[in-house]
Design goal:
about 230 residues; eight-stranded antiparallel β-sheet; mainly beta; 2 domains; globular; single chain
Length: about 230
Amino acid sequence: MKTWSHTIAVGALALAAVGIVAGAGSSARAEEQGKVIRLFDGKTMKNWYTFVPGEGKNQDSKGIFKIEDGAFHVSGEKFAYLSTEKEYDNYKLSLEFKWGTKKYAPRENTVRDAGVLYHCVGEDKVWMKSLECQIQEGDTGDMWLTGGAGGAPSLTVKGQKHTGGRVVKFADYEKPHGEWNKVVVICKGDKIEHWINGKLNMEGTEASLTKGKINLQSEGAEIYYRNITLEPLQ
């Protein structure tokens, strides 16, 4: 299946070729635009802050968010999140996640749940107005359009416009419990793609949000996140 991300890749090659012809200055600028940013260094909270309702920014009395063995260890004990300090647009976000064993109320008797919220805008709260690449057992890759000031965001998928709520993924590509899964979110203008373990399972256009922070959820289940990188797209 040819997707618009394939077109981006072809276009990037063409632009790189133009840069070489134009001279070293143009080439250097193209390389800078395509530079991969390591959002998480595996050791510190650089580029990130925590938000726990009732406690606020960088206040985490229960130790919900820790760094262990090069990964963010999220207990899931309270609904909360890790957020990037900066806002981003036009990028390829890559990360890996793995489920832990613990679950907490009110989700102790349901499937494990978390997620990657992106294009998050507005004040810190659970949850910010955003688009979400769902991370949930059996539903990883779903889109959630989470509301906020001014109403819920919208997205067109397979010709149908959705405003708020859930848009079901095309297929399930999550690995068995305990294994690491790779999630890739591609955002180019008002277009988005979700890739799970190398396979496309959500694609949309005309997104009403195109820029914002990135949040990693704590939502009642123990989870680990690692190898978090962001590649700016031209």
